[in-house]
Structure formats: C-alpha cells, structure tokens
Design brief:
The chain is an all-alpha fold and 446 residues long. Helix content is 75%, strand content 0%.
Length: 446
C-alpha cells in the first residue's frame, strides 16, 4: 500500500501525511525517509547528540556526584546515614514524577521552554543547597533538583522522536546512553576531586554552574522541534486521556516495562557492586574504582556498537538478542556467586556480559516504544522515563535487603531480567513488531 502524501514543501521534499501502521509496514525499508511534516528544527545528528547528551548528563551527575560526601554530610548536619541516603531516593522520586509533568508540558508548549525552565529550576535548587541548614531542607531541595533534572531526561527523548524514527532514533539514543553510562562512573570521581579543595556544598556549586552553561547553550544551539500545529492542549483531562491511551497500548506498555526492568538490573549492579567487590572480595577503593570503571566500559561499548548492529538487524531483533543474552549471563552469575566457582573472576565476567547485553537492549526498547506515539512524544517519553527510574529505584535496594553480597546481586539481576524477558516474549512479541514495520522505518532529518 502506498501512503498518501501532502504537497511538496518549500525545499521540494514530499512529506508523508501520518501513514497508518499498515502503511509503515509496507514502507519499512532501510533507506532514509524525508523529514516529517511539522518538524520546525532539524539540526544535524552530531550537534543534536552533543547538545542533548549534555542535558541528559545532568541526571547522572546530580545523582552520583555527591556520593563521596555522604559521610561528611552525616557529620555536618548531625543526622543518620539512612536519612542522608533518603536524599538520594528523593532525587530519584523527583526525577520520576517530574517527567510525568514535564512530558505533557513539552507536548503543549514545545520542547525548548520546558527544557530550559526545568534546567533553570535545577540551577536554583542547587544554589539553595548552599543555605540548607538541616537534612530535611536538603531532602526537599534534592527532590526539586530531581524535578528540574527530569526536563533534560524526558525532553531529550521527545526531541529524538520529533526528528528521527526506527534505526535512526536507536542510533541517536545509543549516543545518549553513552553519556548515561559514562556520567555515573565519572561523577563520583569528579565529586571526590571537588571535595579535595572545598566542602560538600561546593559539589552543588559545580552542578549549578553546569546548569547555567546548559541553559545558555540550549537557548543558542537547540531549535524548537515541535511545530505549533502538532502541539496538544494543556488540560488535565487531555493529559489523563493521553496517559490512558498510552497505557492501553499493550505493546508500548510492554516495551516500557522491558526498558524499566533492564534498567533495574543495571541499578542493582550500581547499588551493590561496592559492597560485593570491597566487603566480600576485599578490594580497596582504588581497585574497586578500576573494576567498576572496567564494567562501565562494556556497557558503553555496547551502546556504541549498537548503531553498527542496526545496519544489519532491526531494533526489535537487537532488543530480543540483548535481553536473552543478559538473562543467560544472569543465570551464570547466580550459579558462580552461590557456589563460589571462579572466585571474583566468576562473578565479574558474567556481570560484564550482563552490562554489555543491557547496553544493547536499553537504546532499542525506548526507540521502539516512542516510535508508536509520535503524536504524544513528550508524554510517551515521560511515562517511559518515570517507569525506568521508578522501577530501578524500587528494585535496586533489594540487593541490600538480601545481604549485599554476590548472591544477592545475582538474584536481583536474574529476577529483573527474567521478568523483562517474559514481558518481551509474552506481551511485546518482537517478531510481530518486525512484521508490522513498527519502529523499523527510518526518518532522518538533516
């Protein structure tokens, strides 16, 4: 079936007029398609990846940069370790809930204004931390930081969906996941360096300065990508109906859950690795840092290999392969952790395979999910991000509950990836996506 077309644009390109899924199935080839109607700005992929990556990095930096200062905060604010750890949870809660609000805002007001306003809120909250007199005020400000950080996370995904589809979207998301993989590893190191010459509040000064640079760079280099005619009304009823329609899309919801459960496996590793490597296997801080960084290399390598893999395979095929490989590695991890076979090496090697596999699955599951709802990309990206961070925040503490050892880590990772695989096979059914052409067509904006 041939999709309908609108009259040529000013550049002479013919623009598809919102083809149906059957139309997309028929046109799901591997060649670039013309830019979609209503795309106001179309920067090059390189510049887009650079600017959006800088905004996406705010989240990991805000979450992790102050971690080396937690013991100092306990002493200075005369509080408990549990209370200080709740400031981290507060950031994740703000990040998850903020996306649910900012997503619909970006669908109604365009992408630039919510992105820049949210980043400005993050700057303000970071500066107010300098005046926080106690742990309660710090906790509230961390929640506000999370809400501001949510703008970069959700709007970046929405902009990707505005400009690209299918393989092109997955390729750009791979670049963004490079930032998401590298930033958490680098953030504690940067924070430790800042603490060598200033107090823990100096970490938040650096975050505020970074936010100011982002606001200036975004205002200058990032064009609006959502045309007024494609915006949705900002009404509570309309927002509820939008989220309701998303939740009724079984395939979209399944892909969101797959992304969330895969992220939960990753968060479990981040939460438990220091205890496993240092307390159980006796590594010092430097050895732990080296081994943790080496694990991140595998995650980053997979996200950067993903664009090459997508030249031969569909995103749905890569998601399936990555999820199954991660599940098998998790089984091996639990066996070696329980039996002690191979010692530290027996734990590290399957963990690295898990990280590599999640690096393949994470960019493609969101790309497929967002490709189904281009008309509400902000809300779709918001729900996706909220589930990813929400599920991750709920699941990762289970490593501590189960004992903070390699066996506990193996159990949590295995359960998360087992559930993710079950949802993928029983709900999403990726072979059906390839048959429908969902997410397989490429729309490239130059």
């Amino acid at each position: 079936m041939t999709s309908r077309t609108e009259p040529p644009t000013a550049t002479g390109a013919t623009v598809p007029a919102q083809p149906s899924r059957s139309d997309r199935a028929a046109s799901a080839d591997r060649s670039p398609q013309p830019p979609s109607a209503g795309r106001v700005g179309a920067p090059g992929m390189g510049r887009t990846a650079l600017v959006l990556g800088a905004f996406v990095a705010v989240g990991p930096l805000t979450i992790d940069m102050y971690l080396p200062a937690l013991p100092t905060i306990v002493t200075e604010l005369e509080t408990t370790e549990a209370a200080v750890q709740l400031t981290l949870t507060g950031t994740l809660v703000g990040l998850a809930l903020g996306q649910l609000v900012i997503g619909p805002l970006s669908d109604a007001l365009g992408r630039r204004r919510p992105l820049l306003a949210g980043t400005a809120l993050h700057v303000l909250a970071s500066l107010l931390v300098l005046l926080a007199p106690n742990i309660a005020v710090l906790g509230v400000l961390r929640v506000l930081q999370g809400v501001g950080t949510a703008a970069g996370a959700v709007v970046a995904l929405a902009i990707v969906r505005d400009l690209y589809d299918g393989r092109a979207a997955a390729t750009l998301l791979s670049r963004l996941f490079l930032v998401m993989g590298a930033a958490p590893v680098l953030a504690p190191t940067v924070g430790g360096g800042v603490l060598s010459f200033t107090s823990w509040r100096g970490v938040f000064v650096l975050l505020a300065l970074y936010g100011v640079v982002l606001v200036l760079a975004g205002a200058r280099a990032l064009p609006e990508t959502l045309a007024p005619e494609r915006r949705r009304p900002l009404r509570l009823g309309a927002t509820v109906r939008t989220y309701g329609s998303l939740l009724r899309d079984r395939t979209y919801l399944g892909l969101v859950l797959v992304a969330g459960l895969t992220m939960a496996a990753l968060f479990s590793y981040v939460a438990g690795a220091s205890f496993v490597y240092q307390d159980q296997y006796g590594l010092d801080q430097q050895q732990f840092g080296f081994l943790f960084g080496a694990g991140a290399v595998w995650l980053i390598a997979a996200t950067q290999l993903n664009p090459l893999v997508l030249r031969r395979f569909a995103p749905s095929q890569v998601v399936l392969a990555g999820t199954l490989a991660g599940l098998l590695a998790a089984v091996v991890l639990l066996v070696t952790a329980t039996t002690g076979a191979g010692g530290l090496v027996g734990v590290v090697v399957p963990l690295w395979v898990v990280l590599f596999s999640t690096g393949l699955a994470l960019p493609n599951a969101p790309a497929l999910a967002l490709s189904r709802h281009g008309e509400a990309a902000g809300a779709a990206a918001a729900l996706l991000g909220a589930v990813q961070f929400g599920v991750g925040a709920l699941v990762s503490p289970l490593v501590g509950v189960l004992g903070n050892d390699a066996r506990a880590l193996g159990i949590v990772v295995l359960v998360a990836l087992t559930l993710g695989t079950a949802v993928l096979l029983l709900v999403v059914r990726p072979w059906r996506l390839a048959g429908e052409g969902v997410g397989e067509a490429v729309a490239v904006a130059h």
